[in-house]
Amino acid sequence: MVGDVRGNAERVLQAARVARDEQQADAVVFPELTLTGYPPEDLLLRRELIQRVESELQRLCESAAGIDLIIGYPRCKDGKLYNAAGVIRNGRIIAEYFKALLPNYSVFDEKRYFEAGDTACVFDLKGVLVGLTICEDIWFRTPAMMAAEAGAQILLNLNASPFHYGKAPEREQLLQKRARESGLSIVYLNLVGGQDELVFDGGSFVVDGEGQIAQRTDFFEERQPLVVFEETAGKMVPVTAGIAPQLSEEEAVYSALVHGVRDYVHKNHFQGAVLGLSGGIDSALTLAIAVDALGADQVEVVMMPSRYTAGMSNQDALKEAEALGVKHQTIPIEPAFNIFLDMLSETFEGTRPDTTEENIQARCRGIILMAISNKTGRILLTTGNKSEMSVGYATLYGDMAGGFAPIRDVPKLLVYRLAEYRNRNGEVIPRRVIERPPSAELAPDQQDSDSLPPYEVLDPILQLYVEEDRGVSEIIAAGYPEAEVRRIVRMVDRNEYKRRQAPPGVKITQRAFGRDRRYPLTNGF
């Protein structure tokens, strides 16, 4: 856990005891920045954090015996801070490596904190020369080749590599290339767990010097497998062991969402979760994720119908709640909505109903849900998806009110695929919810298509503009209608202020709003 230096060190010692006493291992390897957790962000600017790291490193040196510990931590040396990996043996650090390539893109901001190392690190382990690298180092050729030139026979790569869909196969292809270039067997060790928006998916693996996968752990599961090497024809070759399967895109994304919600709620000590259940697909998927993450007994839902809520929406919401076994109640918003309209009647005199009245309904619901969250200690989960957040199809202080947004980085078309995936072993999201046209139900006979183009058009345009940074002319040239492209781009640009005020949520795409994509609120570009 980020910041829990003492607790992280204790987990290191527990794993070391298992490796030594039960697995008879010679060394046990841990991820990047294990002692602080990743990413520690501006905690690294606090002198006290570095002091705690130094204290726990000393404790590890004093407490670990009979096995080498290879572990990541921040290290201050000559007034400079490094992202380091060290080898603890017989009461001292016998070798230390400083990360050479510091990522400074996407969610990464390491040049803000660290200096870059420039020297290979190779140490002797039972007569075998082992090289160290850290995360980004392996994405480029030079660090691996420097280790090989320094005599390494095996290369260890310590990682805190966050998930986005499609990344796991990309990692493996890259490592296979590095192994063939260097001729080294490589152990790729990745962190597991959720940290705010980020989820680390594990999936650690081993490749031999010819680039063949010799071992792979399960994704999204903490594992401590034994990796065995044998000398063959003068080279250290990994013994083939369990090779866990790669996950489908839907399985990987769904697992990331569940993992992210579970860790955010538990690590921040909430008493469970509450959400509004509308009978639409977004809230239905969010409910399924919450139950899978926390258990049905830790989740409650509130149905809040208005004068515009269809009867089938109430029926489907109830069916979802009962299918997943969660506590549920119905609190109609009509009394509150009428009071607000009455309070504002003089102010609104002479005007026509518009989105103002729609937003009042959403804010009535937000007040109810936040009140329940405050009273119960359960975090309020919002249910908006990435397509909606991109174009501002959401209400500030209404359906955007909450503490965590599980599907805020999930495009609408992927929401449908995830709903089908979740139903694979039994229907918990009613078929009608998946098949009916989506609607906010804030006005008579309203559908999303009244305000937005079909999601089959919207999502690909958003993919090009938001995630791939394509310009308007490029998107039009790709075959999309000019008027729709310009309208969607304007909507994305003018709703940055809403996204800045949205709760955090799990990152599952390559370019999520927030840490990934930072645009000025006021700009004339």
How would you describe this structure in keywords?
2 domains; single chain; alpha/beta; 525 residues; Rossmann fold
Describe this protein's structure.
- Strand 7 (154-159), helix 4 (167-182) and strand 8 (185-190) form a beta-alpha-beta unit.
- The chain is an alpha/beta fold.
- It has helices at 5-21, 47-63, 141-149, 167-182, 249-267, 281-294, 311-324, 334-343, 355-376, 386-391, 412-422, 431-435, 455-467, 472-477, 482-494, 496-500; strands at residues 27-29, 68-77, 80-89, 92-98, 122-125, 128-134, 154-159, 185-190, 192-195, 198-201, 205-207, 213-216, 229-232, 235-238, 273-276, 299-303, 327-330, 379-380.
- The chain folds into two domains: 5-247, Carbon-nitrogen hydrolase (Nitrilase/N-carbamoyl-D-aminoacid amidohydrolase); 250-447, Rossmann fold, CATH 3.40.50.
- It is elongated and about 85 Å long.
- A six-stranded mixed beta sheet has the order 5-6-7-8-11-12, with helices on one face.
- The model has no long low-confidence stretch (mean pLDDT 95).
- 38% of the residues lie in helices and 17% in strands.
What percentage of residues falls in helices of 4 or more residues?
Answer: 25-40%
Number of distinct beta strands: 18
Q: How far is the N terminus from the C terminus?
A: 40 Å
Q: In what order do the strands lie side by side in the largest sheet? A: 5-6-7-8-11-12
Mean pLDDT: 95
- Look at the structure and name the CATH superfamily of the largest domain: Carbon-nitrogen hydrolase
Q: Could you say what the CATH architecture of the largest domain is?
A: 4-Layer Sandwich
Number of helices: 16
Q: Please, how many domains?
A: 2
In CATH, what is the class of the largest domain? Answer: Alpha Beta
Largest sheet, in brief, is:
6 strands, mixed
User: What is the 3D shape?
Assistant: elongated
- What is the third-level CATH name, the topology of the largest domain? Nitrilase/N-carbamoyl-D-aminoacid amidohydrolase
Q: Give the radius of gyration.
A: 26 Å
Strand content: 15-25%
Enumerate the spans where pLDDT stays under 50 for 5 or more consecutive residues: none
Look at the helices and sheets and give the structural class. Answer: alpha/beta
